[in-house]
Amino acid sequence: KTLSGQFRIGGMTCAACVNSVQGILKKLPGVKRAVVALATSTGEVEYDSSAISKDDIVQAIEDAGFEAALLR
Ligand code: 9UX
């Protein structure tokens, strides 16, 4: 099933951070769409729930050196 999650992403200080977080998210298996916004420190991710979970997405963002928390 395709679900969507919204995440708080901390530690992004420039546009290149946003691009790198977006790139990381888009490469995760099961992620279909990822839009990250610097101004609001958030990211919206559409994903296939049979391939990846919200917790996996949080973990991947943190592994890349940013802080992440699930908003919804
Ligand atoms: Mo910008 Mo981000 O110079 O990890 S790329 S701060």
Strand percentage lies at 35-45%
Biggest sheet strand line-up: 2-3-1-4
The topology string of helices and strands comes to: EHEEHE
Domains counted in the coordinates: how many? 1
CATH topology: Alpha-Beta Plaits
Q: Tally of extended strands?
A: 4
Report the span from N to C terminus: 17 Å
Oligomeric organization of the protein chains: single chain
Largest sheet: 4 strands, antiparallel
CATH class: Alpha Beta
Number of helices: 2
Structural class: alpha+beta
Query: Helix fraction?
Result: 25-40%
* Attached small molecules: dioxo(di-mu-sulfide)dimolybdenum
Computed CA radius of gyration, to the nearest angstrom: 11 Å
Q: Name the CATH architecture.
A: 2-Layer Sandwich
Tell me what the structure shows.
The chain has helices spanning 15-27, 54-63; strands spanning 2-10, 31-37, 42-48, 67-70. It is of the alpha+beta class and 72 residues long. It has a single domain (2-70), classed as Alpha-Beta Plaits (2-Layer Sandwich), CATH 3.30.70.100. The protein has a 4-stranded antiparallel β-sheet, with helices on one face. β2 and β3 form a beta hairpin. The protein starts with a strand and ends with a strand. Dioxo(di-mu-sulfide)dimolybdenum binds at residues 13-14, 16-17.
What topology emerges from the helices and strands here?
Blueprint: E1 2-10, H1 15-27, E2 31-37, E3 42-48, H2 54-63, E4 67-70
Antiparallel strand pairs: 1-3, 1-4, 2-3
The protein binds dioxo(di-mu-sulfide)dimolybdenum (9UX).
What's this, in brief?
The protein has 72 residues and is α+β, with helices and mostly antiparallel strands. It is 32% helix and 38% strand. The chain has a single domain, classed as Alpha-Beta Plaits (2-Layer Sandwich), CATH 3.30.70.
